[in-house]
Each structure stands twice: as structure tokens, then as C-alpha cells.
Amino acid sequence: MLAHDSGWVQRIDLGAVLDALPPQTIVEMAVRAGDFVTDGMPLATVRTEANGQPDDRVTGAVRSAVEIGADPTLEQDLGYGITLLVDIAERAGAGSSSDSTTVREVVLHVGIVLRALLLRDLPPAWRTGSAGRAILLPASSPSATTSPPRSNASASRARSPRPSPAVC
Fold first, then answer.
1. What kind and span of H or E run contains 35?
2. Type and span of the H or E element at 70
3. Low complexity composition bias: which ranges (predicted)?
4. Is the pLDDT of residue 58 over 90?
């Protein structure tokens, strides 16, 4: 499934993608919020047990769940927020009229964010729904490479051939 526009991935509605998937279908996302994509760049691959192309409803749901815009946003992109804070600190500390108070405040706020991240579990690299529906997210951290837990449905899929990819 390819992007129809160029810009920043501002948001991905994973719930809408899961709701649109037929049973035994896996979507492998190629992008995440905060990535820059160009027209024609892969957004996702849909794998079905039926060995065929996903229907227009599935491809439309996946494509519309990936919001692409001219500017990055803070909604699902923590890295962008940290980058903005670092830019503020860098500008405040540069030149002859440096503002050490602003630099200190930025360091304190980045520390608050980093502490909060260290104290919580990272989200899994996959989302699952009923009847073998799943979304695999691109690796973004060392924990993203771990395998999802196997349920009865996923265990039976593991014994059968992998669903074939559909390029849409």
C-alpha cells in the first residue's frame, strides 16, 4: 500500500485499521507517526490467509488511518516534542545574549519526560484483534523486535504458511 501524498505522518489510527480487517489478516506498517514519506513510498503491506488482494474497504481503511500533513505534530510523535525543546534550549544558549534560565527550564522539562518514559513499559510492536487480525508496527526500539504472544489462533497460523503479501 503506497502513499498518495508527500509529508509527515501525523497520526495513525490503529483501531480503525483493526476494525477494517477481515479474519486472519495481518497489516505490517512500514511507517510510524513522525516519519516523512513521499508520494509512492510504502505505508503498509497487507497479508491475508486467502492468498489474495485485500478488498478496497481494507486498503481504504488503512490508507485513511495514516494521516499525512505538511508539518509534524506532537499528538503521536514524542521525538518531535523533544526536538522542539532542544531547539529552544539551543537558541536560548547561543550568542552573546544567552538566556540560561530558559536553557535550565528546558533541561528540567526534558528530564521530566525522560523520567516518565523510563518508569513505564514501552508499547508492544504489535496490536491484535479477534479472529487472527493483527498490526505489526515498524521497529523503533530494542523491545520492538520481540515476538507477540501466541494465542490459539496465532499458534495455528504459525503452523500454516505465512499469509501472502498484497501490494496495493
1. none
2. none
3. 138-158
4. no
How far is CA 17 from its chain centroid?
12
User: DSSP secondary-structure letter at 77?
Assistant: -
Residue 1 is assigned to a structural domain of this protein: no
Task: Say if CB 66 and CB 12 are below 8 A apart.
Answer: yes
Give the model confidence (pLDDT) of 60-82 as tens digits.
889 999 999 999 999 899 899 99
Task: Specify whether 24 is located in the same domain as 87.
Answer: no
- Phi-psi region for residue 146, left (φ > 0), alpha (ψ -120 to 50) or beta? beta
DSSP 121-154: PPPPSEEE-STT-EEEPPP-SGGGGSPPPP-HHH
Residue carrying C-alpha cell 506498517: 29
Q: Output the pTM of the full model.
A: 0.74
Alpha helix stretches (DSSP H) within the chain: 14-20, 56-65, 78-93, 100-118, 152-159
Q: CA-based angle 3:9:15, to the nearest 5?
A: 90
Task: List the domain range (segments joined by +) for residue 157.
Answer: 7-73+126-166
My answer on whether 130 and 113 are in the same domain is no
Interatomic CA distance for residues 163 and 48, integer angstroms: 5
Residue 110 contacts residue 87 (beta carbons within 8 Å)? no
